[in-house]
Amino acid sequence: MAIRVSLAHRMQRHRPTRYLVSQGWTFALPGLLIILAITIFPVLYSIFVSFNHVAITSSGFKLSWVGVRNYRTIFSNSLYQYSLVFTVIYTVVTVLVELILGMGVALVLNALSRGRGFMLALLLLPWSLVTVISAEMWSYIYNGVYGVLNAILMGVGLLNHPVTWLGTPILAIISMMVADIWKTTPFVAIILLAGLQMIAGDLYEAADIDGASAGYKFWRITVPLLRPTIALSVLFRVLQAFGLFDLPFVLTGGGPGHATESLALLGYQVMFQDLNMGRGAAIAASTTLIVLLASLVVLRVFRAQVEEGAS
Amino acid sequence: MNAKTVRRFWIGFWVIIVALLTIAPLYWMIATSFKNYFDLGAFPPNLFPNPVTLVNYQHAFRLYHFQIYIENSMIVSVTTTLLVLFFGSLAGYALGRLPIRGRKVIMVALLMISVFPEIAVISPLYMIMRTLGWLNSYQALIVPYTAFNLPFAIWILRNYFLSIPYEMEEAARIDGASGWRIIFQVILPQSTPGLFTAGVFTFTAAWTEFLMALTFNSIPQFRTIPVGIALFGAQFVIPYGTIFAASTIAVLPIAFGVIIFRRAVVSGLTQGAVKG
Description:
The structure holds 2 protein chains of 2 kinds.
Chain A: H1 7-11, H2 17-49, E1 52-56, E2 61-65, H3 69-75, H4 78-111, H5 116-128, H6 131-142, H7 148-155, H8 169-197, H9 201-209, H10 214-242, H11 246-251, H12 263-272, H13 277-301, H14 303-310
Antiparallel strand pairs in A: 1-2
Helix pairs in contact in A: 2-13, 3-13, 4-8, 4-10, 5-8, 8-10, 10-13, 12-13
Chain B: H1 3-33, H2 37-40, H3 55-63, H4 66-97, H5 103-113, H6 119-132, H7 139-162, H8 166-174, H9 179-187, H10 192-208, H11 211-216, H12 225-232, H13 240-260, H14 262-272
């Protein structure tokens, strides 16, 4: 970009570039090394561990190479297969619903002439809420004996008798999705609202002059111009939803049975309850691989937008 | 009624619905924290706590020693935030202003790391922590939280630094100011909004993180707020009153912070669109 002439060019007149290069690395390296040591290295080490059997001894860990045995075990395990399918479906459904609801909320707030700041502050509350607290809150709301949801639904005549919302698999899954959607739709709405506010108003005025319908304006002006915003929010939501852990840990404990057991929860249980680090690492590594592939696909599809931000 | 009035009516209607749906569960949590033992299990439940009692708050502190969890969360979150802002400013300045090769690759890599699932690193980190004897300590959380929040902070800060004009920095360089002085006396004083955004995000992430805190710091003395609250319910009866009293206290600092720094948070969300 023309305005962002790099400092290197501008400084060449005064000092040798080499000085600035070495200074650049001096400043960048501490942070980058921390990231490398605590995120990249463990991911690679985790992949190595997933090919080992890990014996926990009093002094530490003893690794013995077992090849792909851990992967063979998990892939043929019906619990893992269920978790994988559950996590994928959960991710797709919640992100889709959040996108639709988030778009609705963003459109309403965009049309608002007063009180938008107040609404934004309100929407930030669920986003900033500790997930564990949100889960406790919803478990009290869903309670089958004294939960307020039953009281409301019975009060308006939609239910005749109390329902144990977290008691049957399908209801527990839906209940958990609702709790998740409540917490994360505001996040999507805020991002989409920012995108909406960047669309120039005269595009709509021109469409009005041509007599375009509201639906036409939405699908032909709003959605195409919002595409990069939608893509980025979907990418981050998908990656986050795929790591689902806190909510089922507190709300359902993965139950009833294993109905709401996400991949992360299964991995945690295999690692820290069955104390099988190797197999747990295999679950974690396979999850990471899926997440990585998903983000590569999105990065590829929306390449221009992301690189524009990085340049 | 003309079309404009109808439109305004519907917008107002939907705004109220959204506001109610957002606030109702939170209201229910806070109202419940003031209810007494019998009121907690009443069905149908009472909309307002009657009589209002503080007994749940007393239990949270006297019986469950919630102040320890608050102290732990504070120590971990504040230290993490300071470290992230320090290293993030240095790296953000270098990646934004100085001629480093492969900047683009580094920035895209950072973006991807910042959304990595925690489960991917939890087992190796646990093994490292256990070998180092770091389990149940503050550094067991501060170090990984710093590493996990740095990528996003670097993004935010770098983007902010890019918006600062070069003239002052250039003048300082010509006067022979060192890189450190330029960062701390020229760049950072002009970057408070960017620092607030990165700071609020890091603090919120450290305050809410659960998986690592649960895995690395399991003994009560080192539990953070999310772990403390999640493990309140480990008995047969879930003490909802106490849980919600503790939760209300835990939510307040973040809620106030987020509302006060609303602009910073929204600009952070829309810049990187990371985390939720």
